Amino acid sequence: MTDITDSSIYALYGNSAATSAVSTTSEDSNELGQDEFLQLMITQLENQDPTDPSEGAEFISELAQFTTVENLEEIATSIESLSSSFQSSQALQASSLVGGNVTIDGNSTSTLYWGDIVYGTADVVSGASDLSLQITNSAGEMVENVDLGSQSSGTLSFKWDGANLEVNGELMDIDYSQFETDEDGNIIPHDAGEYTFSIVGSYNGSSTAMDVNTSQFVESVTILDDGTIQLNLDDGSTATSSEIASINETA
Q1: How confident is the model over 86-112, as a mean pLDDT?
Q2: Distance CA 91, CA 95 (A)
Q3: How far apart are CA 36 and CA 58, in angstroms?
Q4: pLDDT confidence of 229, banded at 50, 70, 90?
């Protein structure tokens, strides 16, 4: 919104009566609303020289300026209303994520719950080879080191349920002999808890780590004072909606 300052009003009217009216208004604010603008016009008409009244064109010009001020205020009100509606829509969309599973940019540690899936992505650089996906538990012990071979450059996606690993839609070879089984012979997955994921490969003759993003569950959402939507994740960390790489299915 454009502010109309005291000096611009003095230049506009150039008479003492108008100057007096403006001086009273300027003590409270540097902005001129439509009421103050209308009062200025009335004051000018009341104090104009009867032997030299305002020209019709000048009066029309002042009315046009008054209309402009009024329109600007209406536009500002409309923008404020649209902004409020947009924030409400964002909050509604974010609330639908509560209880859901999202992949967060730059997050490489996820919580495994039995019966649920950890989702992840990695950026595979062109020319990388001999890739392997390594999974480390919270004690720092590597529980999986799965050979991925060569993968296409670009985004690689994976899913892990604590036992089975799927990469780009294909199940990987896992050493299932390491797992205990229940009385029915079913594999018992790795313990529930936090795991860190990394993908390394050979690139230009040296070992290189790829950028990995993994998932977390959303416990709640918070609307910050500046309108930003904050996701409160199950591991106690937070993320903004702009950091969501993908929204995943839940078991």
Answers
A1: 87
A2: 6
A3: 19
A4: confident
Alpha helix stretches (DSSP H) within the chain? 6-13, 16-26, 34-47, 56-95
CATH number at residue 149: 2.60.40.4070
Q: Examine residue 17 and state whether it is found in any structural domain, yes or no.
A: no
**In degrees rounded to 5, what are phi and psi of residue 127?**
95, -5
* Phi-psi label, residue 207: left if phi above 0, alpha if psi -120 to 50, beta otherwise: beta
Instruction: Tell me if 36 is assigned to some domain.
Output: no
Q: Report the domain count for the chain.
A: 1
Structural domain range at position 144: 101-248
Flag whether 63 is in a domain: no
What are the φ and ψ backbone dihedral angles of 138, each rounded to 5 degrees? -65, -15
pTM over cut 0.70:
no
Residue 138 in any domain: the answer is yes
